[in-house]
Design a protein that fits this description.
alpha/beta, magnesium (chains A, B), 28 strands, Molybdopterin biosynthesis moeA protein, domain 3, six-stranded mixed β-sheet, Molybdopterin biosynthesis moea protein, domain 2, about 400 residues, Molybdenum Cofactor Biosythetic Enzyme, Chain A, homodimer
Chain lengths: ~400, ~400
């Protein structure tokens, strides 16, 4: 593994250091040309300029003659000699010539003005000038609404429905975006069974892999969940290596038994480069990350406790998924007023489960604490971020929270 | 068609009346049991109570004897006669009996307390009591963290990642949700070509159907876009009837020529019940809605002008899609400070294209007006709602806006 950040005096890596270390190990996916509707709601990876004019051609606004304005005056500034009327399908308007046009007719190349019918008198295929016009007069110019080269969309913008309309109307059918990251959630642990199956004594239903798979969807990934409810090293190794072909990121979850975690860690060591570290974070102190398989696919192992797993996901997996997407990796952080006092520990980033409520424009947050870990998470809609310098927050003080839902 | 709301003195139907009329003609889709991960981010259509206890069984906290607390005292309140030790695999603990337990062991049925080893002395298969315990003492009770019957999720809530964890952990693998509405966008107009193709004189690329298909995705639908770039009545009829089998809602878009609109309206008349009305709204005055085919599939025809089409979508199609989803049909309405004065007409709901910007907690909005309709929409992120009683808004006054994006 590339050199890791230094540890603090307590032998811990800060959350900020761990996050930036992991992000330095993962590159955004390569963009490709995706059809407009499939690319909806994705981040655009190119500046897009119009390749067309709207309207596409200059047209006559009035009945009359398409002319070159410069032909209308002689060297002395007087009205020039009569113009010769030529066929409308002329490739390019010759000097000294004119073409009869009706309103809406496309001007021939070379013409840059329309002489209204009343500004000249037509006889014997020639127009004698009565009045002049300047370049552009009585013309609805090509590109009046949209000019070739106008910036339609900039790199980094989200492709919304109106932008899709603008691009389609400009003749574009594809746009460079990154594919959705493919995240494979691998669930292991020999005491786990899938929900919907009967649970025998000593078994538990697998909740973590479903919760984390859904969280990865919420972060923007395409998710595959694979369960290997076993503790067999060879079986777990086979399952993970089988999945690498379709994974941009592997996330492993387990049932919370120490040996589940250790077996997966052993497998990671066998097939890749691994960083195992204690992070100055609570919960989620033990963090294991690797680059596994021949292609060095990033793999994050989440702790077995549901709260630790979910908090670790939000702290580290979500930024990795966003990095793969080429999207901002920062959290949806806002400030909220603490409803009660909260305690933390100096030197640790503490991520409390919280429930944010809004009254008018003011957000309040209270910590959620329940004996049932999954119930506690389900009651929460935010993580309260008490950073390394915080020992106590008093009721009524503002705290930073990460919102867990998009709305 | 069912009876339509009355028109006003000017022969117009109000936007509120038209909206509620259309909503009265469309029912939410029938919910079904969907697997947890597929149902992520959907509205749950049932109250879900836990069918399990967590922990599932009562277990001993200490080494000792599982007992019935009532057996420990005699009628006079003295310590009772010695208890008989029986096998641990007893189906139900007999009265006057005890079972040897280690910490974590499941108590036999009938037992409701653990007598610590030091509270009795064991000899000849019998325990002589030294101290008593009350019911529940030294027991980690079944359901201490989650009891059978506890409400896990209520009808109308969104299934987020944490709720998925809670349901999975409670042994549930399916949840009742409504399927995503299937919206078929049918594009017609003989001067339209798909983006990416060359455009000849008199042709335009089809922007509306792409924009509206993306808007339907944003509203939560599964979208199919079908182009019949023709004006042939039989061909359009065939295309629409072919699509009805997979459509919960058909939306028709066109290229803005009067005859495009009329051909589709004729087809709707031929295969369904149709409501055509002038609505007191600008833009989007002419509105055509029908119930078409044998199954009376709802079908909305959008105007050909891109701005009118998009505004009509937001006003009427989005609420219909949300109705099919069983989700709130109201708009994401907020208030914003007008950056400049705006004019409207009494008796009409005016939906200006607007750009909302936020400074701190204050939202400002300015109207966007550009000669290029698609460019104007792409610049906008809101619709400014000037209702029927508004003639003028002054700079600095608050106006209602509908936000167009989820974030």
């Amino acid at each position: 593994m590339p050199e890791a950040p230094a540890l603090d005096a307590a032998g811990l890596r800060s959350v900020a250091d761990h996050t930036s270390y992991l992000l330095s190990l993962v590159e955004p996916l390569r963009p490709f040309g995706m059809s407009l509707l499939d690319a909806w709601d994705q981040v655009v990876c190119e500046d897009i300029d119009s390749m067309i004019n709207v309207p596409p051609n200059s047209t006559a606004k009035v009945e009359g003659y398409a002319v070159r304005a410069a032909d209308l005056l002689d060297e002395d500034g007087h009205l020039a000699e009569p113009l010769e009327v030529v066929e409308a399908d002329v490739e390019r308007l010759p000097s000294g010539a004119a073409v009869v046009v009706a309103p809406g007719d496309v001007l021939p190349r070379g013409a840059n003005a329309v002489l209204p019918a009343t500004f000249g008198s037509l006889a014997d295929g020639r127009i004698r000038l009565i009045e002049k016009v300047a370049a552009g007069e009585y013309v609805r110019a090509a590109g009046e609404h949209l000019k070739v080269g106008t910036r339609l969309l900039s790199e980094g913008e989200i492709l919304d429905d109106r932008s899709i309309g603008l691009l389609a109307g400009s003749g574009l059918d594809k746009v460079m975006v990154r594919p959705r990251p493919r995240v494979v959630v691998v669930s292991s642990g020999d005491n786990l069974v899938d929900p919907g199956m009967g649970v025998e004594h000593g078994q538990a239903t697998d909740a973590n892999s479903f919760m984390i798979a859904a969280a990865a969807k919420a972060a923007g990934a395409t998710v595959f969940r694979v369960a290997v409810h076993s503790n067999d090293r060879a079986e777990i190794l086979q399952t993970i290596t089988d999945q690498l072909i379709r994974a941009d990121l592997v996330i492993s979850t387990s049932g919370g038994k120490r040996e589940d975690y250790e077996t997966v860690a052993d497998v990671m060591q066998e097939i890749g480069l691994v960083d195992t570290v204690n992070v100055a974070m609570s919960p989620g102190r033990t963090q294991t990350f690797g680059l596994v398989g021949e292609d060095r696919v990033p793999m994050l192992m989440l702790p077995g406790n549901p709260v630790s797993a979910y908090v670790s996901f939000q702290a580290f997996a979500r930024p990795l998924i966003r990095q793969l997407m080429g999207a901002p990796t920062t959290h949806r952080a806002v400030r909220a007023i603490a409803s009660h006092s909260m305690r933390s520990m100096i030197g640790q980033l503490h991520l409390l489960r919280g429930r944010v409520t809004s009254e008018g424009s003011v957000r309040q947050v209270e910590a959620v604490s329940m004996p049932h870990a999954l119930g506690e998470l389900a009651e929460s809609n935010a993580l309260i971020v008490l950073d390394e310098r915080v020992e106590q927050v008093r009721a009524g003080e503002a705290v930073k929270v990460w919102l867990l839902d998009e709305d």
